[in-house]
Design goal:
This protein is mostly helical. It contains 3 helices and 2 strands; from the N terminus they run αααββ. The protein has a domain of 38 residues: Orthogonal Bundle (Histone, subunit A). It has a two-stranded antiparallel sheet.
Length: 95
């Protein structure tokens, strides 16, 4: 896909970017190359490819999901500006 000067100006306007007139040919070439790459990647048949969560086919080392610093509610509520019945009171922002 080859982008023209008008295409670059429209993209710049939509993105609210100020582009120097002398840089437009470079932007057109670079963006056209990116779109060509995306087009080539879209043409690849990936139906038999299983989606992966990570580029390396290996199990993730995850730590156990355990509470490490529990029971500090009272401590935090002591320094809160306003607390009532164990809840933090905040100013009303919506009427």
């Amino acid at each position: 896909m080859s982008l023209q000067k008008e295409d670059i100006e429209k993209i710049a306007h939509l993105a609210r970017l100020a582009i120097d007139e002398t840089d437009i040919p470079d932007y057109a070439r670079n963006l056209s190359n990116i779109l060509d790459l995306v087009e080539r990647m879209s043409a690849v048949d990936t139906d038999a490819v299983t989606p992966m969560a990570h580029p390396l086919d290996m199990p993730q080392r995850l730590r156990a999901d355990e509470v490490s610093e529990g029971g500090q509610r009272e401590r935090f509520q002591q320094i809160a500006p306003q607390v009532e019945n164990g809840l933090y009171l905040v100013p009303q922002v919506i009427e």
